[in-house]
Structure formats: structure tokens, C-alpha cells
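Figure 6 in text form: structure in, sequence out.
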């Protein structure tokens, strides 16, 4: 049996992987399990009910719900009757809902509960022809999903043969679903995906993951997220049990309850888990805290290949003392985690993987159904810092401009009602232009360097890729979010949202008084501390990429306020709009900004001076240490030769034979000469080291003079 259409999975599962917990959701504190047979049965009954309601081929059926088994019943039922499933994020604002409902011409809408209805109701009130609404949980006065199941049960015989005929008529190239992109710029686009798009993709990335019917996976990314959705198909095709988390805040609890074997995620979730682990280590007693920190440093050195023999010895020690406890907090098993959506810090991949929480990065986009490449533990083709190898059946090439292009059965049918934009994105040869800049490492590993649309040009003509710089900034414990700016300006700058949990702890430790977060970020000492972070970052950047100025803001960037997309990417247009005045201030375009700009730039200069003064102090300490070592070496050398000469002189006094006296006298002279040569060598060696230190100190003094001159010029 081949899987050519999404609903073919139902018969595939029952034939190959019958089990009691194909799907599971938690209701009233209890995990309710759905067997493969029950899954197929409910999907068919719901399809009969939809036919009785009058749902026909081409109708648009929207789902807005948290992850739950019922989502799958609707997904399968809708595709079986030839309708189009349009899953939508449950966290959008009213205007976005109105736009999507009207744009896709929605006929039916399935909601999760009363809370979700309250969120969607303002959008429905604005529509002339709102879709017919049904709720998975009962809502007084509203249609209930259970009523459709009753209709289906009552009309089973009436529609059983008809449904089979409809299923046979559905081709793999027929429209299956429309997914609205998260819309980091402008309105969302309706991406049309066929059955072939979706099935070809999950059947390809199945070959990259070492998962079997014995495993359980936790699902918490929204099922309207195309990657979580295709991974759900992946799990079903492999007979893997899917347990739906109660919420994003209960991931750890749910992992422990079901003893899951892994999950799919976005970097932000792993960053949050890592932050909790780091915080837990700081509360330990002194000795345990040192071991904990050693385990973290050890983890940062992990790699898939090329680990030295001694690494394994330390690995066993840290696994017993630290890493096993991390795994216990997530269910106790070694985990398989796939991360996508945006770049994950390499240090986190190494650290988690060292702890037996194996993280594999992948890459794709909604328009490619979605996976293009992913690291492959099945064949050992994994490389940290890349998104892995290209899927089988997928073509990828890099354009002359460095843009990643892809072609194959995974490429979307097009954008709904937007053929012109479709032609811009998919060229005449069928290549999908991803908008991402990338390269191949070692000829097979795809590496993403930035978004083509996000790269900006400075007034000097140099290009700056903001994402890598933002990721480096977020490696600091004190930085929650950052946006790099500077298009058509002289230099790059940054707007930074501090990690207030860490910042407040630092402020209390330094006895800093503050009223609130807004007051805290205005403190000079706080800016000075962040200046050091920026200064350290700038050392690893090219001159035109360096952050010359920055501002701290006491705001939250979330999906709810529209500054993050549902996939937790920065929405730069709304952020630029919100901070327009601040950006003008940074670039001296307002009346008072020149003075403020000088103050903050002077802070950076003073921070640089302090850094070079610290380096000079280290040079002085090094010079003193060299003098001590030279003195010690000289004393040891002199003592050794004195003993040798003393022994020769004693033998000389006892010697009676004239020839022997002459030989001993010659030996003593040679020892004296060797001592002088050795003394000269030591002096020369330490003189060279002193010269190097003198050169460094002169260089640092020149740097200090340069920065002081810049400060004086501004004054």
C-alpha cells in the first residue's frame, strides 16, 4: 500500500502499526488514549457528518485550536470529503483573523473552547458572511462538534459508499490544505499545498530520524505550524505514539508523565530550558556548583565526531553527576529533538547532546511543505552549525547572489489568489526562491547565513546580516531579545531587551536601587555593563558589522503584541515603527539625540579604555611573573653548576698524577664556560618575552590614547 494522499495514513496505520495509544490528550488531569482503529473510525464518522452538513469539494474548513486528538479527526475527515483544511494560529489578533477568514472564503470553522471563541468573536462580528462555527468543547448557544459525530453515525449507511467514491476521485496533486504564513512582513500569504507536497515531504524526512513504533513523542508546537503538522504525519506513518501537551508551560511535567522520547521545537523553547538549568546550578552548594559548571563547559566541547579518548571518561562522570538529572527532569530517557524555525546557538546543541538530549537542526519553509534539509543521525551525516543534508528527492542549489533555491515535489502549488507573487517566488524552471542566503559546507551540509530580505546596506555600501549578530548578542545571559538596525546609516546599532531576571539579580548583587524595569535600564552603570558585553562581541565582528550604539528597552516582544511571529521570529516592520523615535535618536536625527548619542558612545569608548587598562595590568603581572621565573631559573642553574664544579675541585685536590690534574682542570674550565653560555641563553629567552610584553603594552597604550582622543574631540 502506498501513501499518496494524507488520509491514506489511516489504513496504513491500522494495517502496519495497530496500537492503543496512537493519539493521546490530557483531559481533567487524565491522559485519554485513542487507538488506531478508533482514530480511523472517528475520522470516517466525522466525514459522514460533514457530508450530511453539505460540505463539498473545495470548501474551506478552518481549525483554530490548541493541539488535541480532535484536530486529526477534522484533518482526515475534511481531506477525505475533498474539502480544504485551513489550520490557523490560535494567537492571532482580530485584524489577522478577519483577513484570513475573508481571503480564504471560509465556509466552516472549528474552535477548541469558549476561551478561543472569545478571542475570535470580534473578527466574526466584523464579517458579512461568517463561517459556520463548531466547538470541540461545548459552548452554550453554539454548535457542538459532537453533534456532527451524531449526524455521521446516523447517516453512516447513507454516505459510506459515496465517501469511498469521493476518496477514489481525489488525486495526489489535488489541493489538500492552505497554510497562512506567519507574516513577518505585510499580510499573510495563503500557501496552497497538495497531497503530493505533504506526503512526499514526510516520507522523505522519515529516513532521517531514528524513531520507531516503540517511541512516544510529545507535541506542543501548534499543529497549524507546518513542520509540527508534517511531523505528526511522520509519527503516524511510523506508528509512533503522539501525546499532546496541555500547554507550553507543562512541557517538562508532561514529558515526565509519559516518559517521552523526544519532541519537535523552536530554539526559544530550548533556550528557556537551558536558562532554567543554568539557574538551578547557581543554587547548589559550592562544590556541587563547581562540578555543575565543569559539566556545562564540558558539554560545550561536544561534537558528533572527533572527540578525544579522555572526553568519554569525563562524559561518564558528568553523566552520572549532572546530565542524568537533566534527563530525569524531562522523563529520564535519552531524547531525540528536532529544532527548526530559526537558528539555534551551537553551544546549546553541543550541551544538550552531551547530556543525551540529542538536538538536530533542520531547515525549511511553509512553501516547501516544509523540510528542505535536516541533520541525519540515521546515516551519521550530522554537522553542528549546519541544517544538515538535503532530503532525498529534493533539489537545492545556491544562486549567484547566494540565495538558496529548491525544486521538487515538495514545492507548493502557489499562493492563493496571488499568481503574480507566485511567479516572483517560483521561476519558470520550477525553482522556489527561499529568500534565505546560504552555502554548502564540505559539499553536502547546508548552512543558512541570513535572510535575503533582512540583510541591509550601510551608507558606505557595506552589507550587514543582522541575524548572526542578534544570535551572538542573545548568547549573553543578560540579553533576552535584540534587533540590529542601520539600513542606509553610517554604522550598525542595536535595540536590546534585557533578560530582567538576570539583570535584577545583578543589580541587587551590586546594591543598585531602582523603582521598576524602565528605571533600571536608564541607569548609567547598567549601560556600562552592557557596553562591555557589546565591546566583547565587537571583537569577533568585521569593522562594518560592529555595534557602535545601542539602546535598552523595558518592553516585551511577544506574539500577542505583534512583535514576534507565531514561529517566534522578529517582525521587523512593527518593531521599526514602534521604535522610530528611538532609532532617530540613535542616529542623531532629533534635537536631543546628539547629546545622548555622545553619552552612550562615550560609554563605549570608556569601556574600551577600561578593557585596555585591564590588559596592561595583566601585562604588568606577567612581567613580574617572568622576572620571578628568570630568577628561579638562574638560581637553579647556578646551583647545579656549582655542585658539578665543587665535585671536580675535590677530585683535583686528591689527584696526584699530573696528567689527571690537567684533565680535571680542563673540565672545570669547560663547566665554567657552559654556565656562562647557559646564563646567556636564559637572559636572551626572557629578554625576548619582555620585548613581546613591551610591544603589547605600547599597543594598548596607543589604543587608550586613541580612545581618549576621541572622547576629548567630542567634548
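Output sequence:
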Amino acid at each position: 500500500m502506498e501513501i499518496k494522499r494524507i488520509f491514506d495514513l489511516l489504513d496504513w496505520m491500522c494495517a502496519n502499526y495497530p496500537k492503543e495509544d496512537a493519539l493521546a490528550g490530557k483531559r481533567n488531569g487524565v491522559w485519554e488514549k485513542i487507538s488506531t482503529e478508533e482514530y480511523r473510525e472517528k475520522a470516517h464518522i466525522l466525514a459522514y457528518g460533514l457530508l450530511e452538513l453539505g460540505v463539498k469539494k473545495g470548501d474551506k474548513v478552518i481549525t483554530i485550536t490548541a493541539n488535541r486528538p480532535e484536530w486529526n479527526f477534522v484533518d482526515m475527515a475534511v481531506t477525505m470529503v475533498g474539502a480544504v483544511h485551513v489550520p490557523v494560529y490560535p494567537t492571532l489578533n482580530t485584524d489577522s483573523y478577519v483577513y484570513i477568514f475573508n481571503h480564504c472564503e471560509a465556509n466552516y470553522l472549528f474552535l477548541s473552547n469558549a476561551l478561543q471563541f472569545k478571542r475570535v468573536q470580534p473578527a466574526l462580528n466584523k464579517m458579512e458572511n461568517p463561517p459556520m462555527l463548531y466547538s470541540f468543547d461545548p459552548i452554550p448557544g453554539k454548535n457542538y462538534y459532537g453533534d456532527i459525530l451524531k449526524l455521521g453515525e446516523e447517516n453512516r449507511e447513507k454516505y459510506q459508499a459515496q465517501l469511498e467514491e469521493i476518496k477514489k476521485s481525489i488525486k495526489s496533486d489535488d489541493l489538500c490544505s492552505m497554510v497562512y504564513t506567519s507574516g513577518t512582513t505585510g499580510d499573510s500569504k495563503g500557501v496552497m499545498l497538495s497531497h503530493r507536497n505533504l506526503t512526499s515531504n514526510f516520507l522523505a524526512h522519515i529516513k532521517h530520524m531514528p524513531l520507531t513504533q516503540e517511541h512516544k513523542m510529545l507535541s506542543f508546537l501548534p499543529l497549524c505550524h507546518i513542520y509540527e503538522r508534517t511531523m505528526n504525519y511522520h509519527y503516524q506513518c511510523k506508528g509512533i505514539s503522539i501525546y499532546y501537551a496541555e500547554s507550553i508551560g507543562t512541557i517538562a511535567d508532561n514529558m515526565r508523565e509519559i516518559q517521552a522520547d523526544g519532541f519537535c521545537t523552536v530554539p526559544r523553547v530550548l533556550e528557556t530550558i537551558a536558562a532554567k538549568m543554568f539557574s538551578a546550578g547557581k543554587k547548589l552548594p559550592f562544590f556541587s556548583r563547581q562540578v555543575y559548571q565543569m559539566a556545562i563547559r564540558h558539554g560545550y566541547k561536544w561534537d558528533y565526531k572527533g572527540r578525544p579518548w579522555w572526553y568519554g571518561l569525563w562524559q561518564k562522570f558528568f553523566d552520572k553527576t549532572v546530565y542524568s538529572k537533566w534527563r530525569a527532569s524531562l522523563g529520564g530517557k535519552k531524547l531525540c529533538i528536532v529544532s527548526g524555525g530559526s537558528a539555534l546557538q551551537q553551544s546549546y546543541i553541543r550541551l544538550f547532546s552531551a547530556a543525551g538530549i540529542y538536538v538536530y537542526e533542520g531547515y525549511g519553509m511553509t512553501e516547501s511543505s516544509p523540510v528542505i534539509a535536516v541533520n541525519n543521525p540515521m546515516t551519521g551525516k550530522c554537522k553542528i552549525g549546519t541544517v544538515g543534508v538535503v532530503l532525498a528527492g529534493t533539489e537545492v542549489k545556491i544562486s549567484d547572489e547566494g540565495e538558496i533555491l529548491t525544486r521538487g515535489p515538495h514545492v507548493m502549488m502557489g499562493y492563493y489568489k496571488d499568481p503574480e507573487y507566485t511567479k516572483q517566488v517560483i521561476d519558470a524552471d520550477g525553482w522556489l526562491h527561499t529568500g534565505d542566503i546560504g552555502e554548502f559546507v564540505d559539499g553536502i551540509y547546508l548552512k543558512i547565513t541570513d535572510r535575503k530580505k533582512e540583510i541591509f546596506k550601510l551608507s558606505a555600501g557595506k552589507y550587514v546580516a543582522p541575524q548572526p549578530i542578534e544570535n551572538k548578542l542573545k548568547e549573553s545571559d543578560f540579553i533576552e531579545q535584540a534587533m540590529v538596525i542601520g539600513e542606509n546609516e553610517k554604522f550598525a546599532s542595536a535595540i536590546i531587551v534585557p533578560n530582567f531576571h538576570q539583570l535584577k539579580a545583578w543589580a541587587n548583587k551590586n546594591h543598585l536601587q531602582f523603582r521598576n524595569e524602565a528605571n533600571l535600564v536608564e541607569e548609567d552603570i547598567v549601560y556600562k555593563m552592557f557596553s562591555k558585553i557589546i565591546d566583547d562581541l565587537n571583537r569577533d565582528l568585521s569593522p562594518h558589522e560592529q555595534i557602535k550604539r545601542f539602546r535598552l528597552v523595558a518592553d516585551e516582544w511577544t506574539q500577542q503584541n505583534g512583535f514576534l511571529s507565531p514561529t517566534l521570529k522578529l517582525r521587523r516592520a512593527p518593531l521599526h515603527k514602534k521604535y522610530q523615535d528611538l532609532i532617530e535618536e540613535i542616529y542623531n536625527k532629533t534635537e536631543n539625540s546628539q547629546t545622548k548619542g555622545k553619552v552612550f558612545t562615550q560609554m563605549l569608548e570608556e569601556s574600551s579604555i577600561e578593557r585596555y587598562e585591564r590588559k596592561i595590568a595583566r601585562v604588568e603581572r606577567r612581567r613580574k611573573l617572568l622576572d620571578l621565573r628568570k630568577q628561579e631559573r638562574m638560581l637553579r642553574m647556578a646551583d647545579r653548576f656549582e655542585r658539578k664544579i665543587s665535585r671536580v675541585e675535590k677530585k683535583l685536590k686528591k689527584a696526584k698524577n699530573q696528567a689527571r690534574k690537567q684533565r680535571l682542570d680542563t673540565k672545570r674550565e669547560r663547566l665554567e664556560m657552559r654556565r656562562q653560555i647557559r646564563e646567556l641563553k636564559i637572559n636572551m629567552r626572557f629578554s625576548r618575552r619582555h620585548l613581546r610584553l613591551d610591544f603589547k603594552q605600547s599597543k594598548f597604550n596607543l589604543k587608550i590614547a586613541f580612545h581618549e582622543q576621541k572622547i576629548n574631540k567630542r567634548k
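Caption detail: The longest strand covers residues 432-441.
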